[in-house]
Specification:
This protein is of the alpha/beta class. It has one domain (6-140): Nucleotidyltransferase, domain 5 (2-Layer Sandwich). Helix content is 34%, strand content 28%. The protein has helices at residues 44-61, 74-80, 91-100, 117-126, 144-149, and strands at 6-12, 17-25, 31-41, 66-71, 105-110, 134-136. Strands 5-4-1-2-3-6 form a 6-stranded mixed sheet. The longest helix is centred in the middle third of the chain and has 18 residues, at 44-61. The chain starts with 5 loop residues before the first strand and ends with a helix.
Length: 150
């Protein structure tokens, strides 16, 4: 099922707290879905990679087959694109590469932090979540204006 282009961005919040959020948008930027999650403590890079893994899984489950993943972490983009050996062979990176090999079109691009503000705010909401996380059908009220501007 081709839903057009899905735009997703993610960013973790903090070094100690492994919290992340992501937003799925259509090709013109309209909110489709969002998510927040928390697993405890880890590094910024690992939080970013967990967010990407969860984002890929969520996108697949929603039936999207063409996505552009936006991240404001250049090293993470490089890892996902196979141009970095950082954490090569780790279970998490292997899972990301396995998800990318499915029958769909995936581009991973690096964007400025300013283009990732909604995901940054969603990540901060992850701090308030349980370990299971939350899928959001609509943007939280505190983010509605920001979603429209980004």
């Amino acid at each position: 099922m081709d839903q057009g282009e899905l735009r997703r961005s993610c960013v973790p919040f903090g070094w100690d707290s492994c919290d992340w959020g992501g937003v799925f948008r259509d090709g013109v930027g309209v909110w489709i879905s969002g998510f927040t999650h928390r697993i405890g403590r880890c590094s910024l890079l690992l939080a970013e990679l967990w967010a990407i893994r969860d984002g890929f899984r969520h996108a697949w489950e929603l039936g999207f087959r063409k996505i552009v993943l936006e991240t404001d972490n250049k090293e993470t983009a490089n890892i996902c694109n196979g141009s970095s050996k950082t954490l090569a062979g780790s279970i998490l990176v292997s899972a990301i590469h396995e998800l990318r090999r499915r029958s769909w079109e995936v581009r991973v691009i690096h964007v400025s932090r300013e283009r990732n503000e909604v995901a940054d705010r969603l990540a901060s909401l992850g701090r308030e979540q349980t370990l299971e996380g939350e899928v959001l059908a609509a943007p939280p009220s505190a983010l509605v204006d920001m979603v429209d501007l980004e």
